[in-house]
TrEMBL record:
It comes from Oceanobacillus kimchii. Pfam families: LacI, Peripla_BP_3. Keywords: DNA-binding, Transcription, Transcription regulation. It comes from the Bacteria. This is LacI family transcriptional regulator.
Length: 340
C-alpha cells in the first residue's frame, strides 16, 4: 500500500479501538496477547512502522491529502497531478487521487471516500462553478482549495487559477494581428469556470476588434475527440470556412489539427489553430502548437503550498486564498498570417 496509514486504519483492520492501538504501541501492560498480536499484524499488513502510527495518534494528522480531478487521462490534469505528487513528497505528504464526475452526487461521493481515508485536506480540480455542496465543507472549516477552477457565490472559497478571460483575449488578439477576421471558437460547456471565462474573453475580443459574432462558428458542448473533430471538419469543408480556430484547451486543438489534415487544409497556410493550457505535447517540434500558457507548474505548486498552510493553520491572514496568475502567449508554428 502506498497510502499513508493512520491509527484509525490500524484499529479498523485489527477490529479494536484507537485507544487499544495506542496502548499496544506504548507497551501498556494490560493488553491481551491475542489483541496485541492483531494490532501488530494489522500494522505489518498495512506496511507501515509503529513510529508512523504513533505520530498519527499524537498529531491527529495522517499526512495525506486528496486530489479530485474529472479525467486523469486529460493531459493538463495528468501533468499537474504529477507535479503535486512530487512536491507533496518533499513535505512528507502522500496524495490520494480520485477521478470523479463533476455533478454534486459524484462530488459528494469523492469527498466521502477521502474523508474515509482521513485526509488532512483536499485539492479540487473537478467541480462545476455552481456547486453549492462545497459550502458545507467550508462552513466546517475543512481545508479545501481549487485549482484551475473556482466557485461563484462562496466568498470563503480558496483557489489558484489563471486569468482565463485575459488569456482568451490574448489568443484572439494574436489571430487578429495576423489578419484573421473569421475566427471559430470550440470549447466545453459553460458550467465550468474555465470554459465560461474563456468564452467571455472570446466574445469581448471579437467585439473589441469589430469582428462579426457568428454563432455558426461556435461550439460549446461535449469535448470528446470525435465531437470536436466532426464540428471542425464540417466547418473546414465549407467554401467560406473560418481562417482560424481558437480552442479552449490544447486537447481540443489537437482534434482540430486532425480535422485540418483530414480535410486537406495545411496549418498555418490555410488555417491557423491556437490552444490554451500549454501541455507538454504542445511544444513537440512535430506539433508546435501556439497556445496560452496557464503556467501549470506554478499553479500546481502554489495550490499545494496554500493547502498546507491551511492544514497547519500557519496562514497569517484570515482572508481566503484567491490567486489569479497572468497567462502567457506562446507562439509556435500553428498560427500565421492569413493570406486569403
Amino acid at each position: 500500500m502506498n497510502e499513508r496509514v493512520s491509527a484509525y486504519d490500524v484499529a479498523k483492520l485489527a477490529k479494536v479501538s484507537q485507544t487499544t492501538v495506542s496502548r499496544v504501541l506504548n507497551n501498556y501492560p494490560h493488553v491481551r496477547k491475542e489483541t496485541r498480536k492483531r494490532v501488530h499484524d494489522a500494522i505489518n499488513t498495512l506496511g507501515f512502522s509503529p513510529d508512523e502510527i504513533a505520530r498519527s495518534l499524537a498529531s491527529k494528522k495522517t499526512n495525506t491529502i486528496g486530489l479530485i480531478v474529472e479525467d486523469i487521462s486529460n493531459s493538463f490534469y495528468a501533468e499537474t497531478a504529477h507535479i503535486i505528487l512530487r512536491e507533496a513528497q518533499k513535505y512528507d505528504y502522500e496524495v490520494i487521487i480520485i477521478d470523479s464526475e463533476t455533478d454534486e452526487k459524484s462530488f459528494q461521493r469523492a469527498i466521502s471516500i477521502l474523508n474515509g481515508k482521513r485526509v488532512d485536506g483536499i485539492i479540487v480540480a473537478s467541480i462545476r462553478m455552481d456547486n453549492q455542496k462545497i459550502r458545507e465543507f467550508y462552513d466546517k472549516g475543512f481545508p479545501i482549495i481549487f485549482y484551475n477552477r473556482r466557485i461563484y457565490g462562496i466568498e470563503k472559497s480558496h483557489y489558484v487559477e489563471v486569468d482565463n478571460k485575459l488569456g482568451a483575449k490574448m489568443a484572439v488578439n494574436h489571430l487578429v494581428e495576423n489578419k484573421h477576421r473569421k475566427i471559430a471558437f470550440i470549447s466545453g460547456p459553460a458550467i465550468y469556470s474555465t470554459f465560461y471565462q474563456r468564452f467571455e474573453g472570446y466574445k469581448e475580443a471579437i467585439k473589441e476588434n469589430n469582428l462579426e459574432y457568428d454563432e455558426s462558428l461556435i461550439y460549446k458542448g461535449d469535448v470528446s475527440y470525435e465531437k470536436v473533430f466532426q464540428f471542425a471538419l464540417n466547418l473546414m469543408r465549407k467554401e467560406d470556412m473560418p481562417t482560424a480556430f481558437f480552442a479552449s484547451t490544447d486537447q481540443i486543438a489537437l482534434a482540430i489539427m486532425d480535422a485540418a489534415a483530414r480535410s486537406g487544409r495545411h496549418i498555418p497556410f490555410d488555417v491557423s489553430v491556437i490552444g490554451f493550457d500549454d501541455i507538454e505535447i504542445a511544444s513537440n517540434p512535430y506539433i508546435g502548437l501556439s497556445t496560452i500558457s496557464q503556467r501549470k507548474r506554478e499553479m500546481a505548486v502554489l495550490t499545494l503550498e496554500r493547502l498546507l498552510l491551511l492544514i497547519n493553520n500557519t496562514d497569517s491572514s484570515n482572508d481566503p486564498n484567491k490567486i489569479t496568475l497572468e497567462p502567457e502567449l506562446i507562439i509556435r508554428k500553428t498560427t500565421g498570417v492569413n493570406n486569403h
